[in-house]
Amino acid sequence: MTRHTHTTDETGFDYMTNKGVEEQDRDTLGILFAVAIMAVITVSQYLGLL
Amino acid sequence: MNTDSMAINYDLGRKSWFSALYGLKAVLPGLLAMFFVAIFSNNLAGVPNPFTLQNLFAWLDGVIGPVHHQSFFQVLNSNFVWNPLLLGLIIGNVFGVPDCWKRGLSYIHMLMPLGIIMLAPHFMIGHAFKLGAAPILICTVFLFLTATMTLWISKLFKLDDRHGSIIAGGLATGDPHVCAILMPLIKAKGGQVVHSTACVIGFGLVSMFLLPVLGDWIGLTPKAMGLASVVGVGNNAQSLFAAFGSSYEAGRWATWYDVGRHVIMPAGFLYVFIVMFVRKLKRRDDETVMATRGIKTFPIWLGVFVFLWVLTCLHLFKEPAHHAIFEMVKWDFSLAAGALGLSMSFREITQHGFKGVAVTAVAGVLRIVLLLAAIALCAKTGLLAA
Q1: How buried is B239 (Cβ within 10 angstroms: 0-12 exposed, 13-18 middle, 19+ buried)?
Q2: CA-closest candidate to residue B37, choices B337, B386, B355
């Protein structure tokens, strides 16, 4: 199998591959950070800080 | 090492969700690469850098002058997603991508759901109520009709179902951003996403000249022409180009009606995803079904997006909080698009050939014909007041 030089490093890590537990963890972190950012901004507005 | 052994390695070393962030030393070069691509592409909140692609295009817009009241690069859909993608694509193809960047660039998979969730406050359905029932109905019906027709035509043309889904989302919503939003949901390749985007923008460029001619030929009023441009051309500045190309009044009506297309955009990508996901569930063993393959259950982050979209419609996110959140979205997508641009060669985009172009053209022309017939009928029956 040929190595995709743009995305795969010499150890075989392909940064465009997203599957399994790693994908679930990335999704969870995405949700956590998104909700945290939106909550901070929205609560700031309701508290009159924005 | 194949992707399965990569996954096993990750599982063995995993301690918590935060293991997907890897170590700072491993990700820093890639994060810096994304950061510099982002800040040299767009004018981002908190960065006083004047040397951006966005400013270069704005300067060129000033030299070229307005075209039908629109900026030339806006008509070409230059924005906070495509600017960093273009820059990443050029850097990746000219200089290559060093191995030390790759761990950091993998943050694209976290940034995509993050950015899409934060987009929710952008779509408040109540903003479209001022348009009246008939225009809202036309926008909604043609969103679902175009998506369905495009999926069907792509099947007829035997186009890869991932490619067809991305085109369906972009064309139906009149928003090429949807091509990128659908990428993690459809599990499409980067080359398919960029090719689909080029198809949608390219067809928009053709239809923005075609629609005013057809509209004037069947005698549409400026008001009807404004609505026809928004639904039949879409892509924001391209629809305004088409409407202003017909008459100044039609252009003003298009700016009025554009909100109707904009606020229901999430329904378009949700519809395409659900149709393709259900299809995959029904045909689990069919190897030709590629779209959404790898997604076992409805993604939780998409559920969070829908929940926040409902809260948005209940007016939870007010100004300036919505504005501040959208600035974060620009940061997020600028970083992610930089990583996406770096991930592919020009060859990966062009290898998809002309089948996608043909599907977009056939579906787009069919939509325009049906739309003009529907609008003319509404105008005749008084449903769309002159």
Answers
A1: buried
A2: B337
A39 and chain B in contact, CB less than 8 A: no
User: Which residues from B are below 8 Å from A34, CB to CB?
Assistant: 113-115, 117-118, 301, 304
Q: What's the full length of chain A, in residues?
A: 50
**Nearest chain A alpha carbon to B113:** A30
Give A17's contacts (C-beta < 8 A, 6+ positions apart). A7, B3, B6
Tens digits of per-residue pLDDT, B144-171?
Answer: 999 999 999 999 999 999 999 999 999 9
Q: State pTM to two decimals.
A: 0.95
For B358-372, what is each residue's pLDDT tens digit?
Answer: 999 999 999 999 999
Q: How many CA within 13 A on the CB side of residue B104?
A: 21
Residue with tokens 């109905």: B137
Which residue's structure tokens are 């909700």? A35
Backbone angles phi, psi at B304, to 5 degrees: -65, -40
